[in-house]
Each structure stands twice: as C-alpha cells, then as structure tokens.
Q: What sequence folds into this?
C-alpha cells in the first residue's frame, strides 16, 4: 500500500480523487488512521462477547482487554462529528449537509434494527429481543446534528460540551410528568437518558442519545480545529487533549482517594480506570477522548504498511462494522464446534449478551487468536471497498455513498 496518504509533509487534506480541490473529498489521513485503530480495537470486545468472558473482571488481563476498547465508541462518535464538519466544507451547503446527515442517520437506525441485530443473533425473534446499540445511537445523533448544523460552529461546540457536562439534568423531565403520562409514554425518555422508567421488556437500550449527541456536536466543532495550519492544529490538539486527561486524573483520583475503604474494593488503578460507560459519564469521556485528541499529532508522523492498514480500515468504518460482527459470530460457532462438537447457537440468541457456561468460556490466548484472524480476514474486503470509494463516480451512486 502506498504510504503517501499518511505523509504529514503532504497537504492537510489527502486528496483521494482527481479534480479540483474544492470538489474532491477532503480526508485528513490522521483521522482515518485513528478511526481505523479504534475500529480494530472494537473487534477485541466483540470477540470477547462471543468468548463468554465478562466485561471487565478481577484479573488484570480481562480488565484491560475490556478497558482498551472503551476508547472505541467515544472516538467513533466524536470523529463522526468531525467528519460531518469536513463533509459540510466539501459540500459548501449546510442544507445539503443536513439532508445527508438525516438520511444517513435514518439508514443507520434501520441497519441496527435489521442487518446488525441479525448479525449479532442469527435469529428473527424480535418479540423477545431488540437491541438499541451503538449504531442506533449514532444514527439518531446524526439526525439531531442535522438540525444543529445551521448554527455557528462555536455554538454547536458549546451545546455539545454543555450536554456532556450537565447530562444528569436529562434524568429530571420524566419526574415532573403526571403519573398517568409517566407510565404510558414516559418510558420513551429512556432512549434519551436513563430515568428509571419501565419500558418494553424485550428492548435493550445500550446507548442513550445523551450524552452522545454532545460528543458528536463537540466533534463537529473540533473539525474547525482540524482545518487550521498543521503547527497550530497540533498545538491545539495537545492543549485540549492533555487538559482533558489531566482533568480526568485529578477528578477521578480525588474520587478514588476520598471513597470509603472497602475490603472487597478493586485495586485503586481499576477504580480509577473503571469509569461508567452506560451512560457515559463525564470522567469516562475525559478518560477516552483526552488521550485520543492529544495523540492525534503523533499519528501525522505515522509511516509504513501498518499505518496504511489502519488508514484503510478508517476509510470504510461502516463497511467494516457491518462485516465484522457476522464474521466474528461465524468464527465463534466454528470454534465452539471444534471444542465441543456442537455449535450451540442458543448461547448467542441475545448477543451481545452471551450465555456461555463457565466451563466453556474461552481463555485470553484463544480470544486474541480469533481477533487477529478476524481482522486479517477483513482487511481484503475493506481494501477493495476503500478502492471503490476512491473513484469519483462512486460518490454519485445513490445510497452507496452513505456507507
């Protein structure tokens, strides 16, 4: 693979098409590389789902296997906002950008409820299990961002930060509803932010809209920073990223230090790093987004074929996502067949909530072996699709441009 696309000495934008710069799709290679890294890391957690291992645990190996994947959703959503800003600059029309975001968002919601849910479970039993996962959330956040893009960029960024840091106030509105309304329609608020209301038993809401719409809005405003001159961009990334990371270390450290001692408490490091993800707390987002932003300048210096592999994945994130879950699922069934003589599909009937018996859960070596095999297998189709996207004609082909 050519490495010129990740050469920081090149123009700020990696022009992957021919034609005038104004109409070429602007791509910042460092963003593609970071996006590709988190897409690959995400596969670790989804292999863990099918392995039966818990989401974190008493051993450092299981804990950090889960913890390293915490960077995926925040980075994915944040950079989706940044990508929306850059796409808007290419279009030069905020109305067109709003239409694009709304359309793509609704497509993602549909994919979550159909293709992705089927890929997780390999069944059509919607009466007993429906998942509102990360792609569901990403889709609705794009729809909401479509309504914000006509505002000034600074206003969008401010709204995003306010939502992130004041997210708990979104638990209050349902409490002021009359009892009759609270029981009948108030549960819809659970899609926005957890308020402790009962909903449809078959529905599992993993990702609420808040605070993630705030993350996407903040990422949209961050796009303006990525368009600045390289030296200024790197300086701002370091300043923002290190400030967020320091705030996490100070705030999280104080909470751990001031917490009452307990005999069964995990180690202090685990307490510090084990921040709340559902919904994503302020400390969780500072812990994940801070280092990611701070490391962006380093990715501009990336060289070689490894960086090229990550850039390839980062250019086709949705295509990768749609492929990796069914591939992991199939490989997990094959592994189960080889180990036990039967595929046991019932264990994954409500994935990503797997029910693997204790004696059949995988060890970490097998988990990481399957992870490497899956990522290697996905590289070939992702490289092919990235090549398809590089052609100017591709961007004119209807719904395909939304992948």
A:
């Amino acid at each position: 693979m050519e490495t010129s696309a990740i050469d920081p000495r090149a123009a700020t934008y990696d022009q992957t098409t021919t034609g005038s710069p104004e109409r070429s799709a602007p791509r910042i290679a460092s963003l593609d590389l970071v996006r590709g890294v988190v897409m690959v890391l995400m596969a670790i957690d989804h292999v863990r789902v099918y392995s039966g291992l818990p989401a974190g645990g008493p051993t450092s190996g299981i804990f950090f296997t889960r913890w390293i994947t915490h960077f995926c959703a925040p980075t994915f959503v944040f950079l989706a906002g940044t990508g929306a800003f850059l796409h808007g600059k290419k279009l030069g029309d905020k109305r067109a950008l709003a239409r694009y975001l709304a359309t793509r968002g609704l497509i993602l919601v549909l994919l979550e409820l159909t293709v992705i849910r089927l890929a997780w479970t390999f069944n059509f039993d919607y009466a007993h299990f429906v998942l509102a996962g990360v792609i569901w959330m990403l889709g609705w956040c794009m729809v909401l961002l479509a309504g914000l893009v006509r505002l000034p960029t600074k206003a969008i960024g401010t709204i995003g930060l306010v939502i992130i840091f004041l997210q708990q106030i979104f638990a209050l509105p349902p409490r002021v509803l009359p009892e009759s309304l609270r029981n009948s329609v108030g549960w819809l608020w659970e899609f926005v932010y957890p308020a402790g209301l009962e909903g449809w038993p078959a529905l599992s809401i993993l990702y609420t809209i808040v605070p993630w719409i705030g993350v996407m809005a903040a990422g949209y405003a961050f796009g303006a920073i990525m368009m600045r001159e390289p030296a200024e961009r790197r300086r701002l990334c370091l300043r923002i990223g290190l400030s967020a990371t320091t705030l996490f270390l100070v705030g999280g450290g104080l909470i751990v230090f001031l917490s009452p001692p307990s005999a069964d408490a995990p180690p202090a490091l685990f307490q510090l790093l084990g921040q709340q993800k559902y919904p994503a707390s302020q400390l969780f987002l500072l812990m994940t987004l801070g280092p990611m932003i701070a490391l962006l300048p380093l990715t501009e210096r990336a060289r070689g074929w490894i960086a090229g592999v990550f850039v390839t994945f980062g250019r086709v994130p949705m295509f990768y996502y749609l492929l990796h879950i069914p591939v992991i699922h199939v490989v997990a069934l094959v592994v189960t067949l080889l180990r036990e003589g039967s595929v046991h599909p019932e264990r994954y009937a409500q994935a990503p909530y797997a029910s693997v018996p204790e004696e059949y859960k995988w060890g970490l070596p097998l988990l990481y072996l399957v992870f490497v095999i899956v990522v290697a297998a996905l590289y070939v189709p992702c490289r092919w699709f990235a090549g398809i996207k590089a052609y100017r004609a591709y961007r004119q082909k209807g719904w395909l441009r939304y992948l």
Summary: Residues 4-402 form one domain. The beta strands are 130-132, 203-205.
